[in-house]
Every structure is written in structure tokens, then in C-alpha cells.
Write a structure and sequence with these properties.
Helices cover 55% and strands 16% of the residues. It has 328 residues and is an alpha+beta fold. The chain folds into 3 domains: 4-149, no CATH class; 169-218, Roll (SH3 type barrels); 226-316, Alpha-Beta Plaits, CATH 3.30.70.100. Strands 4-3-2-1-5 form a 5-stranded antiparallel β-sheet. Strands 6-8-7 form a 3-stranded antiparallel β-sheet. A hairpin with a 3-residue loop joins strand 7 and strand 8 (274-283). Helix 1 runs antiparallel to helix 2 (32-52), helix 2 (32-52) packs antiparallel against helix 3 and helix 3 (67-98) packs antiparallel against helix 4. The longest helix has 32 residues, at 67-98. The radius of gyration is 34 Å and the shape is elongated.
Length: 328
């Protein structure tokens, strides 16, 4: 087929490519499956026209070099490579959705899309405009080194975010605690940082590099339940078994704590003044931890009063009083 006969197929490819872009924007992002089907249909139609016309998509820069025909030829090459990139990106989005972890794979998905767009751009530069990539790659390498030195902190956050996503340290909705005591629920993760909603209803923005360096405790795994231990000192006026029975009745009367696993009472120490015990119980989530503890304290007061038990003063107060007397 002569080059003059190839102009009509190239015009048809331009029409298909531009029509595909218009429909791609009209569909919007809310229907990714339908969008992918349309992308594949238009890309397949464009590829079929190239096949019938015996035009290689990586050789369009040699068909025409001047005038309107050259413009049509280059536009056809740009549209074909663009629709190829969009089709691959659509497949990536569908795979992420089928994996049912779109938020967890957000950073990986963005990275894959960036690589696909970069590959499509380099292909257009080389195969559509016929420019050598060697000089471009060399120049880009120098620029990349300069940018890397200037943005090393930002790049550290980016790669730390990728490492955290691959390691599945946490996902959106998890409640985490850092080694410095900061804790909250993960509300957003992006290339640079992770946002935590604290118990005080504040948003804490943490760079990913800080998260990667600190120890992270995921309080939402294996489930949302959380263990609370409450220490109490009871005056040593009754036998320890009676004290245990009273404290157990406190746990049984609570409506905020979970029953599986069962709450327990553990005797920690005894002296001439007090019996020290620890109430161990679980709550469904950290959000109701303070409410449950308040209820336990209130029940503890009422049950001790009803059963003739008295609360003992803390041991540190005894040590303080003893030291004061000695100094006097």
C-alpha cells in the first residue's frame, strides 16, 4: 500500500482516538469497569486499523514528514500510545479493586501509573517524533541527581510510604500507637504522610519516614478489642478470697466490657495495710475505654461500700509519709 493510501487509515485512527477521549471523560471515574471496556474497544479498533493498513505503530514517524499528512500521522501515533497507556492503567485499577484493598495499594497503584505514563511518553518521543533517547536519558539522569539531592527528605517519605504499604503495617481505619506515645486512628495515607485522628479529635500529620523509623503498635489487630488493667488497693480487713469475690462482682455488673475472653481478678501483693489486686478486662474498642473504666470505678466504690470493704491509700503515699517522719 502506497503512503498516499495510508492517509485515510491514519485519519480514521485520529477520529477513533479523539472520540475515545471524549467518551472516556464523559463516563467519569465512578464506572471503572465500563470505562475500561470502552478503552479496550477503542484501542482495539485503532490497532485493527493499523493492522489492516499494514502500519507499524512504532514507525509512524517515517510515513509523512511535511504538511497536513505529517500532522495526521504524528497525532495518530500519539493517540495510539496514549490509549495503550490508558488501557493498561484501567487494568491496574480493576486488579486493585478486585483485590478488595484499594486503600492499602494506593501508593503502589500510583507508582505503577507513573511508570506507565513515563513509558508511554518516552515511546511517543522515540517512535512518533523520532528523537534519540540517549541524550534525553543522560540529561534526565543529571536532573534526577540534582532533584534527588534537593528533595531527599521528600523522597525518603515517599519510599518509606511504599515500604509501609508493602509491609501492610496498617490500613485505613486501624488504631495505631507510636513508640513516642502518639496514637490515633489512620484516616489517610498518601505519598508523603499519614494522618491520624487522635482521641482528642485532632488530626496529626506524620511524615512516612518518621513512621518507618519508630516502632508502630497496631491496636486494631488481630481485632479491635483492647485489654485494660485497673489496679486497686483494698484495706486488709477481710480475707483475700472475699476481696476477690467482691471485685469479680464488679466485673460481672459492668455493661461496657466484653465477656469473651472473661474478665479476671489477679491478686498482686499483700501487706499489713492493704491487699493489692488488678482488674483485667477487655473493651470492644479504644473508643469506649474511658467509659468502661469510669463504670468500673463507680461499681468498685459502690460494691466495696456495700460489702464493708475500704480502699487503702497508695503505697507511694506511705513511703512519702515515712520519709517525712524520718527527716523530722
Amino acid at each position: 500500500m502506497s503512503s498516499d493510501h495510508r492517509l485515510l487509515p491514519l485519519i480514521l485512527i485520529d477520529v477513533l482516538g479523539l472520540a475515545g477521549i471524549c467518551i472516556w471523560h464523559i463516563q467519569g471515574r465512578s464506572r471503572p469497569t465500563e470505562r475500561l471496556i470502552v478503552q479496550i474497544l477503542f484501542f482495539g479498533s485503532m490497532s485493527f486499523v493499523l493492522f489492516v493498513a499494514k502500519i507499524a505503530p512504532h514507525r509512524t514517524d517515517h510515513l509523512y514528514t511535511h504538511g497536513f499528512a505529517a500532522l495526521v500521522s504524528k497525532l495518530a501515533g500519539i493517540l495510539w500510545w496514549t490509549h495503550l497507556a490508558w488501557s493498561i492503567i484501567g487494568l491496574v485499577h480493576i486488579c486493585v479493586r478486585l483485590n478488595r484493598k484499594p486503600s492499602e495499594a494506593h501508593l503502589i497503584q500510583d507508582m505503577a501509573v507513573s511508570v506507565i505514563y513515563l513509558g508511554a511518553t518516552l515511546s511517543i518521543i522515540r517512535f512518533v517524533f523520532g528523537l534519540p533517547l540517549g541524550t534525553l536519558v543522560t540529561t534526565s539522569g543529571v536532573v534526577a541527581v540534582i532533584l534527588g539531592l534537593a528533595l531527599q527528605n521528600t523522597l525518603g517519605d515517599v519510599f518509606s510510604g511504599i515500604a509501609l504499604a508493602l509491609g501492610k503495617t496498617y490500613v485505613l481505619g486501624d488504631w495505631i500507637r507510636l513508640s513516642d506515645g502518639t496514637e490515633g486512628r489512620v484516616t489517610e495515607t498518601n505519598w508523603r504522610s499519614t494522618n491520624l485522628l487522635t482521641g482528642e479529635n485532632n488530626i496529626v500529620v506524620l511524615p512516612n519516614s518518621i513512621l518507618a523509623r519508630q516502632g508502630v503498635t497496631n491496636l486494631s489487630r488481630p481485632d479491635e478489642t483492647h485489654l485494660i488493667a485497673l489496679s486497686v488497693r483494698i484495706a486488709a480487713t477481710q480475707r483475700p478470697c472475699i476481696v476477690v469475690d467482691v471485685l469479680r462482682s464488679v466485673l460481672e455488673a459492668s455493661t461496657c466490657i466484653t465477656r469473651n475472653p472473661s474478665p479476671t481478678v489477679a491478686l498482686k501483693a499483700i501487706d499489713a495495710i492493704a491487699i493489692e489486686a488488678e482488674l483485667q478486662f477487655r473493651v470492644d474498642s479504644l473508643a469506649i475505654g474511658a467509659t468502661a473504666k469510669n463504670e468500673i470505678v463507680d461499681l468498685l466504690y459502690s460494691q466495696c461500700k456495700a460489702n464493708g470493704l475500704s480502699l487503702a491509700i497508695p503505697s507511694r503515699c506511705l513511703l512519702t509519709n515515712t520519709a517525712t517522719k524520718i527527716s523530722i
